[in-house]
Amino acid sequence: MSHTDDQGRTERHNERMARKKEIMDARIAAASEHRGVFIVNCGNGKGKSSSGFGMVMRGLGHEMQVGVVQFIKGAMSTGEERFLRRFPDEVQFHAMGEGYTWNTQDRERDVARAGEAWEIARQMLQDPAIGLVLLDELNIALKYKYIDVEQVLADIAARPPQQHVIVTGRGAPQAVIDAADTVTEMTLVKHAFAAGIAAQPGVEW
Amino acid sequence: MSHTDDQGRTERHNERMARKKEIMDARIAAASEHRGVFIVNCGNGKGKSSSGFGMVMRGLGHEMQVGVVQFIKGAMSTGEERFLRRFPDEVQFHAMGEGYTWNTQDRERDVARAGEAWEIARQMLQDPAIGLVLLDELNIALKYKYIDVEQVLADIAARPPQQHVIVTGRGAPQAVIDAADTVTEMTLVKHAFAAGIAAQPGVEW
């Protein structure tokens, strides 16, 4: 590439970036409301729970108190649980503890456990000292109607105004998507599992 | 709902779960290879970087050594950086430190900084003591051709066999998607930003 080409490329890049900066500055100026956001991570791809735990990490970096309830996972010890239990003063962590429903095959027990877990979640959602609440795999409990979605949405709506809440899991009911501020669908493009690679510590749990 | 209805529902649920368990057991048996996976989080939705940091948390919970390079972010102090710097024995953290390119408007400086950051990433990718490497926003550096994609993919392919690597950011080149084991597109369904809510600590950084 000649010096002239290189210079032209740099100038075009700089013009594009200047326009982008103007657009971003205007958008940032327009988005001025500071309040707790309700975030949903759904879809069949990887990253729903891990994104929630990444936000937990961010919250901890900003000296927030954090609450976590895992609605399905918990039969096995996960990396996130082992790590977060190192911070009992900063993190309230509750894992429902009965594994996936296809391992328990007991609807009544699942309903009872999910209800108990929701009571713990509700206490977090009533505590203004908690800046961020992660309700991991809640969508699955809602999809199977282990917990009443209207009750869940009422409790989330009644939380302290500055508290963020993150709901994860496949099969989010439409009412949950409608109520949320930010919704991401984690879309599966490809997954190592399908190519014969096992679920592994640090990646899947 | 009558008792009979309730019983029928429970039986149908149990049958469905039993079939699901069979399918899952077969899939788990087939996925038996244990090796480092190459994961890409792309798309326009929220959750690409935060999912990477959630996997960092999982890795730390499994006593892994972790390496993080942030290719674009770093002009401001993020929650993830503040948190991870608490663990200097477990986490090597490098933030490139010049903010988004639309704030710098200086292609040559961006190219130089991205190249320096890649040298640090390459050292992590050559270190078998590091179990998980997060290359945050690398896709953006590749999209703007600040770093050569073929060199990047060669370095990733040559990493220790058990090391996991996660690449995040919009605009992933097709060659990166082709080379990865697991790819998730974070699809934007809606975002609080568009409704006038500011980017906030704990959520966006």
TrEMBL record, chains A, B:
It holds the Pfam family Co_AT_N. It catalyses: 2 cob(II)yrinate a,c diamide + reduced [electron-transfer flavoprotein] + 2 ATP = 2 adenosylcob(III)yrinate a,c-diamide + 2 triphosphate + oxidized [electron-transfer flavoprotein] + 3 H(+); 2 cob(II)alamin + reduced [electron-transfer flavoprotein] + 2 ATP = 2 adenosylcob(III)alamin + 2 triphosphate + oxidized [electron-transfer flavoprotein] + 3 H(+). The keyword Metal-binding does not apply. Pathway: Cofactor biosynthesis; adenosylcobalamin biosynthesis; adenosylcobalamin from cob(II)yrinate a,c-diamide: step 2/7. The keyword ATP-binding applies. Residues 7-28 form the Cob(I)alamin adenosyltransferase N-terminal domain. Its EC number is 2.5.1.17. It is found in: Cytoplasm. Keywords: ATP-binding, Cobalamin biosynthesis, Cytoplasm, Nucleotide-binding, Porphyrin biosynthesis, Transferase. PANTHER family: CORRINOID ADENOSYLTRANSFERASE (PTHR46638:SF1). Belongs to the Cob(I)alamin adenosyltransferase family. Required for both de novo synthesis of the corrin ring for the assimilation of exogenous corrinoids. Participates in the adenosylation of a variety of incomplete and complete corrinoids. This is Corrinoid adenosyltransferase. The gene is cobO.
